[in-house]
Design goal:
Length: 410
């Protein structure tokens, strides 16, 4: 009798958990603007490919192939299969896949929707006036690289690993969510207007970083620890406000970088700010590079400061720190007239992005949508850990909506 009651209780708990997972799935699928939502339980048929929840009437459910991009582009390494993505048997929506720290440098497995199956579909978010949100529910074991998005870095970059490349391809970046990049563990949104590079650097540099950063949790932690370790990574790009924002667990937060000129990569954005400012002054100015491409200037609005702090006024000239929405600038004044301007800080979250999302043509210059990794020339291991859900929306979700999504895993 006792055994019967125990089995009945377990069955009841199992049904309750299933109902709870279905409720959480419904919360995501009922959110306006949904394009695709992979929960890693929905498949074409038992044992077949994962597919996405899509809006009623959609003609594409974005089945995920398993691939090894090293084999595709370097012609090296083994094929990837679904067996290369261990399953947790649990997660926010009932299941999760593991991205492992692969030791074979010729093996970088990922799940993908090939370009041929997504071009010009709702998932192919691009062009004028388009906005996007990517949400990934994950447990980060290590790494700071890609979680999901359309982000083919290009294999034409001059790297040691590209010396043996079999297939050279230009960058095909549109939008993607990363686990931090320069701020490991943060939610990092990345977008591109040209598919290629920014500010004369070889990499795309329009990116944001949430204020908070996710912890590292071993993939084999006990179930009770894993159940409490889910993080909700998200990025939003709002084309109306020109804001690219990173969100971790429903919170964005402000993040600034002081002395951006000293940063290995952000220094290129600082120089783009300088070149854009100098180009507005008649004649060739000291420090001005006349060959700097004008479409790569980076000059966030600086019409009216939100705060002015006097740095020095005892000895002429007067020095003030002007804080704007996205920049902090040291301004030197003499007899009330500005005689010098120096960038002291850049805002990393939100990041000002005054462009449209890259709009590739149907000519091979568009990338796939990938989960777990993106195609990149350095072939690093990237993010490792568990991914329990990936959702894409064609609008910028609100703080309240993203907080609600994190509430699903609390």
């Amino acid at each position: 009798m006792l055994r019967f009651l125990s089995l009945t209780l377990l069955a009841s708990l199992s049904v309750s958990a299933a109902e709870s997972a279905q409720d959480r799935i419904a919360t995501v699928t009922n959110t306006p603007g949904l394009v695709a939502f992979w929960d890693f339980t929905k498949r074409e048929a038992p044992g077949q490919r994962f597919t996405a929840h899509v809006p009623a009437g959609a003609t594409n459910d974005y089945a995920l192939d398993a691939g090894n991009y090293v084999k595709d582009l370097w012609n090296a390494g083994p094929d990837a299969t679904y067996a290369d993505f261990p399953m947790l048997g649990a997660g926010p929506f009932g299941q999760a896949i593991r991205i492992k720290a692969e030791t074979n440098p010729d093996f970088r497995p990922l799940l993908l929707v090939p370009r041929a199956r997504l071009h010009d579909s709702p998932l192919d978010i691009k062009g004028a006036g388009k906005a996007v949100t990517v949400v990934v529910w994950a447990i980060r074991e290590s790494g700071n690289h890609a979680l999901a998005g359309i982000w083919h870095e290009g294999t034409d970059l001059k790297e040691k690993t590209t010396e043996s490349i079999a297939k050279v391809e230009r960058g095909q970046r549109q939008y993607a969510l990363f686990a931090g990049l320069n701020k490991e563990g943060a939610a990092c949104g990345h977008v591109s207007e040209n598919g290629a590079s920014s500010f004369t650097n070889k990499y795309a540099l329009h990116k944001c970083n949430s204020a908070e950063q996710s912890p590292k949790v071993p993939h084999d932690a006990v179930p009770e620890v894993l159940a409490k370790s889910w993080q909700t990574f998200a990025m939003t790009f709002d084309s109306k406000t020109q804001l690219l924002t990173g969100w971790l667990n429903g919170q964005s937060g402000d993040r600034w970088l002081d002395n951006p000129q000293k940063d290995r990569l952000v220094s290129y954005a600082a120089n783009a700010w300088l070149q854009g400012r100098l180009a507005k002054i008649p004649g060739l100015q000291e420090g001005e590079d006349p060959k700097f491409p004008s479409d790569q200037y980076y000059n966030p609005p600086e019409d009216k400061p939100v705060k002015v702090t006097v740095v020095s006024e005892k000895d002429a000239p007067r020095v003030e720190l002007h804080e704007y929405a996205f920049t902090k600038v040291k301004v030197t004044l003499k007899d009330g007239q500005e005689i010098a301007r120096e960038l002291t800080s850049l805002r990393l979250n939100p990041w000002w992005y005054p462009h449209d999302l890259y709009q590739p043509k149907n000519d091979g210059t568009g990338g796939p949508f990938t989960i777990g990794r993106v195609i990149h020339s350095s072939r690093g291991v990237g993010f490792t850990g568990w991914i329990g859900g990936v959702a894409v929306f064609d609008r910028a979700l609100t703080a309240e909506e993203l907080a609600k999504f994190h509430g699903l895993v609390k």
